[in-house]
Write a structure and sequence with these properties.
51% helix, elongated, four-stranded antiparallel beta sheet, 13% strand, Chitinase A, domain 3
């Protein structure tokens, strides 16, 4: 009955949190930390500072409930204190399965706390950031391009027959050859490209970064080009692109410093975690526990 009551209480608290109507996110009361916000039935005072520390440990949905229904939350917290005290007086914390549950919860909370501490304390020297930028500069490459687009499959207009994939590829290859031969690329765009948006800007297709979410075929073609070079036709589901690289640059260190810092910090954290993980060895496992032992016969019916 005790377990059932606690579970029921937890369900009621969760249900109340989920039933709250959408509203502006409430804020913590602007009170000094030493301010007593309530006194419990056993005479213990509860201060604003203590509330903030408890509040910080709550999951987000419970934090919202604590601020939207403050008096109700205080009552529920008081009830939890009283039930806990009663459980301790009955020495339930020393009985199974409560003792094991408390120990496991302690392991879970402290192991998570230690990982957060290890992550927060990971340091990155300024020289590391500069070295990472210099050695991995290709990650920060960017290319400004123009493009011609030749479609296939759909009818180009009334009275015109649909262009096959082979015909579109041949036309795109011919335009690429013309551009490499010195033809005005902007003029080729205006006269041939079927991408209306870029055609209106003489083929300007924007600036690509290596990290952008673009098709692999386009990424490979664009970043293989040096400034002024023209690509072979690049097939996409409904057509072919011909790209010309207008400018190839690298994002300056000032723009990517924070990104590199976080990457190195995460790298250091994972290096430490890998070391700790390798040290946390489990030895002498009983094969029967792993299912490798003999299987007992089923009991007779």
């Amino acid at each position: 009955m005790k377990v059932l009551g606690i579970l029921l209480f937890s369900c009621l608290v969760a249900a109340k949190a989920q039933a709250l109507p959408a509203a502006p996110e409430p804020k913590l009361p602007d009170l000094p930390e030493e301010t007593v916000i309530c006194t419990f039935d056993d005479g213990v005072a509860f201060t604003m500072g203590e509330f903030k520390r408890v509040y910080g440990a709550l999951p987000p949905d419970m934090q919202q409930m604590a601020l939207r229904n403050r008096s109700e939350w205080l009552h529920e917290y008081s009830l939890m204190r009283k039930l806990t005290k009663m459980a301790e007086e009955s020495k339930l914390d020393q009985e199974s399965p409560y003792k094991e549950a408390l120990n496991y919860s302690r392991l879970a909370v402290l192991s998570q706390a230690q990982m957060m501490e290890m992550n927060n304390s990971a340091t990155v020297a300024p020289a590391e950031i500069v070295n990472a930028y210099d050695t991995q500069k290709e990650k920060y490459k960017q290319a400004r391009v123009k493009a011609i687009y030749i479609s296939f499959g759909s009818s180009p207009g009334k009275g015109k027959k649909a262009v096959t994939e082979e015909e579109a590829k041949a036309k795109a290859a011919k335009l690429a050859a013309a551009a490499r031969g010195g033809a005005d690329f902007a003029k080729l765009v205006r006269e041939n490209s079927e991408d209306e948006t870029s055609r209106a800007k003489d083929g300007d297709f924007g600036t690509f970064r290596v990290s952008d979410n673009i098709p692999d075929a386009i990424r490979a073609a664009v970043f293989a080009l040096k400034q002024g070079e023209v690509s072979d036709p690049v097939r996409q589901p409904n057509g072919f692109y011909v790209f010309r690289s207008e400018e190839v640059t690298y994002r300056p260190l000032s723009q990517v410093r924070d990104q590199i810092f976080m990457e190195l910090k995460n790298q250091h954290f994972h290096e430490v975690m890998d070391r700790v993980n390798n040290e946390a060895q489990v030895k002498s496992i009983n094969p029967a526990f792993l299912g490798a032992g003999p299987i007992a016969p089923a009991p007779a019916k």
